[in-house]
Structure formats: C-alpha cells, structure tokens
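TA notes. Do not distribute before section.
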Amino acid sequence: MTPSYFLGVDGGQSSTTALIGDDQGRVIGMGRGGPCNHVGAAEGRAKFVGAVQGCVHAACVQAHLDAAALRFHSACLGFSGGPADKESILREILPAEQMFVTHDALIALSGATAGGPGIIVIAGTGSIAFGRNAEGKTARAGGWGYIFGDEGGGFDLTRQAVRAALRAEEGWGSPTILSEMLLGETGARDVNDLLHRFYTTEFPRPRIAALSRLVDDADGKGDAVARELLDAAATDLMRLAMAVRQRLFRADAPVNIAYVGGVFRSELLLGRFGEMVEKSNATYVRRPAYGPAAGALIEAYRSAGLGHTLADVPDEK
C-alpha cells in the first residue's frame, strides 16, 4: 500500500514553517522559509511562492522524500492576514488531494490545545483571542489591526509607552524612565524627534512593537508608569479571552486558555493575565502543547477524517 503524507504550514510575518507527517501521525520532516504575509504585488507574490516552496522542499529533504514527485493526501496552511488572496496561488504550486487554507489563529489554537477545544490568546505585534468548542463552533475577539484594535499587543504597548513619555515631557503626566529608555534605544534626540521617526518607514510596525520589551525593563527598575501599562495590557488580553469564553462555553465548563506571542515574555504581564483569567470558574491558563505548524498538521489530518495524536513533534522556535 502506498504511504500517505500530510502537510502543515504556518506562514507568518517573519518566517514560514512546514511540517510533514506520515499516515500514523509521526512528524518526519520540518523546513523553514522566509516571510509570506503579502502577495498583492508581483514582488510579494514571488516572495510568497518562494517561502512556501522553500520550506516545503526543506521538509521533504529532511523526510527523505522526492519533492518533485510528492502529492500530499491532505494539506493545511495558515497565514496571518487570512487565506483570501493566497488559496488560488497555493493550489497552483502545491499538489494535494485535499487543501485547507485558513488563518493563523486557528492553527495556533489547534497546536496549543493539540487539536482539542479551548482558547488561544495571541499577543505579538497585534493581539487576538480565538476559540473553538467541542462542537466545532468558533469565535474571536480582537485582531482588528493597529488603528482600531490590537489591544495588549506589542505595538499598542509601545504606543502607550510613547504616550506616557509625551505626557511626562509636557508636564501633565507622571514621571517615567520610559522616555530616556526609548530615546536611548532609538537614538532620537527627544520625544518629539522619536514621534516623528515612528511615522516614517524606518520604523515599520514590527520594529515599533519590539520596543514594548522596554516597558517590562522599566518595570524591573521600579517604574510605576510601566507597571500600570503592563497591568492594563494584561487586563485587555484577559477581556479578549473571556469574551470568547462567554460565547463558546458554559459558565461551569472547564476551559483551557493558552497564550503565545512576545508580549507574554513579560513575567509580570503573564502573571497578571493568569491571575485575572483564573478568577473565572473552571478556567485555566496553559502553555501551548505545540506550535502553529503542528496545529496546521493536526488540521490536515482532521480534514482527512483522521484524529491522529502527533508524535516526534519538533520545537518550532
């Protein structure tokens, strides 16, 4: 009998990861590629195709499979920004009997819960909470972008830090060391110069979001304003999670809530998030079981009607 192979791909703003599994649920190959979140222009499409094909080819090499001759039984690919502008391209470049193209929150959830019901809170550059119950019903809260949403995400946390620095400089806000830390990190002359730099292409959103770690650093030095900002971000993320819980699960039903994203590297923020979430009856904060590429592979098996438990899953970090 000819063996069947399954593919899971996590396509993000910084990298693309592919996992290949056999027909028993064992991961046999992993590959990485570049970012693949934009496909609008010709250059973006070329980068997208190169990233997907590159990581799948690398996974085939590790699995000792001939990429040119391989046709997957089932493939699931999840992307930041959703599937709308990518699915037709993928069907041209990836041979698969079944293909499921979805958004990154679903595969992150599936990986975090090993395919089970629950909720994932993602707080990287932006933020979103996404959940699925045992009946397969899904719900989301947040994820509406840096202008109208993304509360508690890295960009929003940096924005709040800059606002606090501006208030302190103008004399109507509490003193904070965030001003000098932001200036030192960026090389700006003053807060006014910093603000103008943030409006240029020199500082794309991910770079601004990465500066959110300074808020945690400032809290470690005893800065009261930084502590307030971290507490507020934790509160926002908790509210997103509980909004999804309310829509999908009974009040007394046990629910696991997983977390992922750079913002949760803050021990204070993660601790406060956990404290507030677990005040709700039968609600528990858990580390993710697997990464999003493993979640995509789980969804590939699910699409084929298989409920395999994954084995030999590599670390996606």
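Switch to the second chain here.
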Amino acid sequence: MMSTPQLTILHVSPHADDETLSCGGVLLAHLAAGDRVHWLVVTAFAEKSGPLFPSDAPNHDPVSAVAAAYGFTGVHRLEIADARLDTIPRVDLVDAIGTVVRDIAPEVVYLPHPSDVHSDHRIVCEAAIPCTKWFRFPSVRRVLAYETLSESNAALDPSHAAFRPTVYRDITPHLERKIEILRLYGDAEIGEHPFPRSETAVRALAALRGSESGFAAAEAFMLLRDRG
C-alpha cells in the first residue's frame, strides 16, 4: 500500500491568532498526518513594533508558545506594525511574502478571505495572491481562503463578496486542542461570549460548519485555486 506523500503547508496570518481562529483544527490535522506546516505572521503582536522587516525583533508575545504548542515546522515573522500595512509599499509586502513562499516551497497555501472587514486581512490576501502564481512559484498547487471570526462575517459593503464555503474539513478530533491553543493568547485577544472571538463562538462556528458538511465539527474554506 502506497503512503500519502507529505505536504508542505503555509498559513499566511495577518495577525497572530488568525491561524487558530481560522483553521487551527485543520493545521493540527495536517501535523497529525505528518505534513510540514509553516506559519507566516505578517504583523507584530506587540503594540510597539520595530523596523519594517527586522531580522531579530524582540519577542514579548505568545507567538513562540503557540508555535511550540502546534509543533510548526517553521515560523516566519515580518513584524510589520499592526494597522500600518496600508502605509507599506505593496511591492515590499509582495516581495517579503514571496521570499517565504520561495524558501519553503509549499504545495498548499491558506490565505485570509479577500473581503474581510479588517483592512489588514484584505491587504495581506492581495499581496499573497501574486505569490501563488504557478509560473513564479511552481510548488503551489492549492490555495484556500479561510474565514476568521469577527472579520469574514462582518463586512457591510455590498460590493464585497461574502464568504461562501466550498471546502469543508472535519476537525472533530482536534477541536479541544484548538481551544487549548487559543487560550494561550489570553484576554488580550479572546473575550467572553458574546464577544465574537470567544470559545463559545469558536465552538458554535465549528458546529455550524459541521452541520453543513456532516461532521460534529468542521472548518470551512473557499477554494481559490486547485492545480490538482
């Protein structure tokens, strides 16, 4: 019986916590399958950020603890100041993301939804999409947009495309671990229900997506590209 080849996965997170809120269960499933999972965090977690792309930015946040809890293959931090992405020349952001994609050569890339209400999410998605072009980044076979609580479902502009799932993944065995990792962010990012980024909301969304796809708990995605 032939074994399934290991995949190299890249999750592109505008902010630390987007990885767990969006598809922490799927990332855990990839790791359990032996896939190599890389995490790219675009903005700095701390309120005070260093230079645009420092090589040794100080670490005063839970990113290292979260990365260790998952057991990621690699963590890549651009350390751009939160809410300053619109001040960065787009070519610089594309080049920075492209360098990571070229270095790790992922087959599967997870991106924020292009119509999220948070401008950082939209900017990151727009900058990352050129880094999935097959003729420049031939490793990339599959690109999926994830949904993020408080962002993907909050856009009011009717010109923005709604998040409409086309791919579902069973996360039933991984939901509790996802919640445990989410707790590492503490009260700074995770609030009490009915705050949209709460444990209750995370469980409710997993149950809803599960009910749509025949699982006890699931995470949902929009397929942006699939090269087989």
